[in-house]
Structures are given as C-alpha cells and as structure tokens.
Amino acid sequence: ELTHYPNWRMTLSEKENLAAKTDYFHRFFADYIRFCMDWPAEFSERVATATARYFEFFRPMERAGNTTPHCFGTFVFLKK
Fold first, then answer.
1. Fewer Cβ in 10 A, N or C end of the chain?
2. For 27-39, what is each residue's pLDDT tens digit?
C-alpha cells in the first residue's frame, strides 16, 4: 500500500505535521535559497523578507489542508 503526502515533512506528532503546513511554500522557498542554493544566511533572509508579500497569493490555497504548489512529498509504503 502506498500513500503520498505532498509537501509533507514527517515529524514526531500529528500536531507538528499540521502546524508545518502554514506558510509552507514561503518557508520552502526560504529554505531552498539558503540551503540548496547555498546563498549567504544574511542575504537569504533579506530575499525571503522582501518576497514575503508575494507568497500571500498561496495562502488561500492552504485551506483544507492543501500545501500548494507541490515542491516535494513523502511516500509511505506499507507492506501488508
């Protein structure tokens, strides 16, 4: 059995999983430029702050548990 959790970071609790969905795309973008693109921390923070207002576009999509656009996901396989 395969289950896919788009844009879901597995944590130790359901409460943390749900909290991680708020402002997901903005946090993903900030993490990406800092850690994947290896931009300096101070510059990355300035870019993330400057672009924050543009991520408001995605807020309505976060309702009902959505985290869009999908950037990655977690796949859980369960052998029965």
1. C
2. 888 988 999 999 9
